[in-house]
Amino acid sequence: MKRFACIFLVLVLMLSLLTGCASQSEEAAVDTPDETPAATETITMRLAEVHAEGYSTTMGNREFARLVEERTDGRIKIEVYPGGVLGDEKSVTEQVQFGALDFARVSLAPVTEFEPSLNVLMLPYLYKDGDHMFRILNGDIGNQLLANLEENGIVGLAWYDGGARNFYNTQREIKSPEDMRGLQIRVQETRLMMDLITALGASPVPLPFGDVYSALQTGVIDGAENNWPSYDSTGHYEVAKYFTVDEHIRIPEILMTNTKVMESLSAEDQEIIRQAAREAGEYQRTLWLQSEEESKQKVIDAGSVITYLESNEEFQEAVMPLYETHGAGYGDIIEAIINTN
Question: Which domain of life is it from (predicted)?
Fold first, then answer.
């Protein structure tokens, strides 16, 4: 009997101890503050870029990522994917719009598929020079057009410099629109660019940027159009040595994100993102001017035949109908751009 009483007493004592431990655990769970609040969690985002490492836009993107990480004390990390590994410009623009991708740096051309009013910024022979273009982009006109873009789920963060675009081909020097006739010219996949080539008497061939070298090499196309650094960095000068400096169009480039991505961040982080993007844009433009001169000298040394037009009036006259078709409804904006000093 005494043995049974001892066992019963031990069980009671053990039960009391377990109950006390459980109560302490519950109190600890309630009273102990969360040591890793959501505000300190690291957010990793992706940024798509079609150009290779070392290209000015890629370097601008990396500067953007560096500034954001530094100013958020490492809370926001942006991984840059160069070389088109996440898709061509049209594809990544769609990915940003639908929220499948956080950031992308693209030419403005594919973005116009979502916001046609941006076409007005790409009309041929619209700007006096690069400085004139950036006065427009960073002023009231540029800001209003970016606001239109937000209605499509895309936030424009900064403008990058894409320089002036020129024609190059495998066949001959181009000195007049007549020399364009019969040529198959690669263009970006937009109606404006295809209509531009058609107006000059050539045939437009929409192709992804990464396919241009092999298409030139195999004769699928006769030529393309782009800026000096792109002509150089892609090696297109190796297979298309005739380069005509006509500066037919300046297509600004844009660093962009998704509206929901921005809305998911605090107001403070949104401002950090915007300011870092603006500074990265300035950084990229400085690099761009340097790269233009370097690329120009490189392709000349490699044997490219560079043709400077005495006048581009014939080209201007040929493309004037595009102002009516692609600038319809934006006459006041076009006039304001032309009249901006």
Answer: Bacteria
